Amino acid sequence: MPKASQLSNEEGSKILHLKLLGKTVKEISTLLNRSESIIYGILTRKTPYEPKPRVTDILSDKRIQRTASSQKMSVLEITRASRLQISKNTVHRRIIESGYMIHAKMARRLTLSKLHISKRLKWARNHMPYGDKWMAILFSDDKKWNLDGPDGNIKYWHDLRKEPRSFFSRQSGGGSMMVWAAFGFNGQVDLSFLGGRQNSPKYTEH
């Protein structure tokens, strides 16, 4: 729970207004989701309630929210980009205050166009009657795991008014590990770990 000095102007005014309407401290606490000690502190203080002044204006708030909506930036990056003398906690509150921004995980998906999808469907249909030929076919693939951070765990500020963002690949950097595997009609091969930089001759050795 925040301290009384951290309550917004609106919350302080609501507390005083509800008291004038005859509400008890407990009732006000329930209505505003604030602790009874904070409500009691506001109502019994000797000096008039003077909440902490807002450090950003409406234009700054809109600019912060617009940046969060249009850029894939963290709260700290948005704070630095704003060039305002404010904390990252303030920036976080302004983003949440928009009412349409949530911190979400970016979905990972292939960037397939309609042409890509059409060609894949055509290939599948053409190979449906392959029969015994499948016994001579082997499917293989490799995967590079980045060791500089969790793969696929990319989060961003999602604007609920827009379509969710997605990604296919990430920038390389730091350590990595590559694995290779294959399967065919008769089963699967053992997982192979590929060390170091790979070229065609070295790749085929595995």
Describe the structure.
The protein has 206 residues and is α+β, with helices and mostly antiparallel strands. The protein has helices at residues 9-20, 25-32, 36-44, 58-70, 75-82, 88-97, 114-126, 200-205, and strands at 101-105, 107-108, 138-146, 155-159, 166-167, 176-184, 187-188, 192-194. The strands form three sheets. Strands 3, 6, 7 and 8 form a four-stranded antiparallel beta sheet that branches. A hairpin with a 2-residue loop joins strand 6 (176-184) and strand 7 (187-188). Helix 5 packs across helix 6. The radius of gyration is 29 Å and the shape is elongated. The N and C termini lie far apart (59 Å). InterPro entries: RNaseH_sf. One of its GO terms (molecular function) is nucleic acid binding.
Write the layout of secondary structure elements.
Layout: H1 9-20, H2 25-32, H3 36-44, H4 58-70, H5 75-82, H6 88-97, E1 101-105, E2 107-108, H7 114-126, E3 138-146, E4 155-159, E5 166-167, E6 176-184, E7 187-188, E8 192-194, H8 200-205
Parallel strand pairs: 2-5
Antiparallel strand pairs: 1-4, 3-6, 6-7, 6-8
Protein name: Transposable element Tc3 transposase
GO molecular function: nucleic acid binding
InterPro entries: RNaseH_sf
Distance between the ends: 59 Å
Question: Largest beta sheet, briefly?
Answer: 4 strands, antiparallel
What gross morphology would you assign? elongated
Which stretches of 5+ consecutive residues score pLDDT under 50?
A: 1-5
| Total number of strands | 8
Average pLDDT reading: 81
Total of domains: 3
Q: What name does the CATH topology of the largest domain carry?
A: Nucleotidyltransferase, domain 5
Order of helices and strands: HHHHHHEEHEEEEEEH
The radius of gyration over CA amounts to: 29 Å
Number of helices: 8
What is the level 1 CATH name of the largest domain? Alpha Beta
- The CATH homologous superfamily of the largest domain corresponds to Ribonuclease H-like superfamily/Ribonuclease H
SSE class: alpha+beta
Give the helix proportion (percent range).
Answer: 25-40%
- Portion of residues in beta strands equals 15-25%
Shape-level CATH architecture of the largest domain: 2-Layer Sandwich
